[in-house]
Design brief:
- Helices cover 31% and strands 35% of the residues.
- By secondary structure, the chain is α+β, with helices and mostly antiparallel strands.
- The strands form three sheets. Strands 5, 6, 7, 8, 9 and 10 form a six-stranded antiparallel sheet that branches. A two-stranded antiparallel ribbon has the order 1-2.
- The longest helix is centred in the middle third of the chain and has 40 residues, at 43-82.
- It is rod-shaped, with a radius of gyration of 35 Å.
- The two termini are 58 Å apart.
């Protein structure tokens, strides 16, 4: 059987030879250079312990690397999820746009982007590519969603999605009741 064999090397020519475990410690002859030698009886135990090391060590290292990569990949998402959502208040509305002429919804879209920027690590790097989706939730309340490019902790630009629920309050201030970057 193959499991009864151990591999050893000839001390003269370094040729690999397979012998039975039972022959370890008994005189053997190299088939290549014909040198007689006594194989080390403890060599097969070292091979078995090396095999056990490889069976345990490398999978453990691989799992650790996978876990670390997963953790780093999801770190930013978890950090954003742990932040409590606190309604943001911004100063009074500018201009003379009213709800009737539709100007308020454009201002609401602008304010939604301002609230999203507050959630970013590097708000000054924020870019909003593509279209913004708008859902009217009430007479002065909207939900905006879209994409935002911004720098992450390591300085690389990343593309994320966002949504923000904004409303124009009775006290003529913009409120954000929910904002999330994911």
């Amino acid at each position: 059987m193959e499991s009864d064999l151990i591999t050893t090397k000839c001390p003269a020519c370094r040729h690999e030879i397979q012998i039975k475990k039972s022959q370890a410690g008994i005189k053997a002859k190299c088939p290549k250079c014909k040198t007689a030698f006594i194989p080390d009886p403890l060599q097969y135990k070292r091979q078995e312990s090396s095999l056990m090391f490889n069976l345990i060590f490398w999978p453990a290292i691989s799992l650790t690397v996978v876990f670390v990569l997963w953790f780093m990949w999801n770190r930013e998402t978890r950090l954003n999820a742990e932040k409590p959502v606190i309604p943001h208040v911004v100063g009074k509305r500018t201009g003379s746009a009213t709800q009737n002429n539709g100007g308020l919804k454009y201002e609401a879209a602008h304010m939604a982007k301002q609230f999203v920027k507050k959630k970013l690590i590097a708000p000054e790097s924020a870019e909003f590519p593509g279209d913004v989706q708008m859902v009217v939730l009430g007479p002065k309340r909207w939900k905006f969603s879209g994409k935002v490019n911004s720098r992450n902790n390591s300085g690389a630009m990343t593309l994320s999605r966002y949504y923000a629920v904004v409303e124009y309050g009775n006290n003529e201030k913009w409120l954000c009741s929910d904002v999330k970057v994911y």
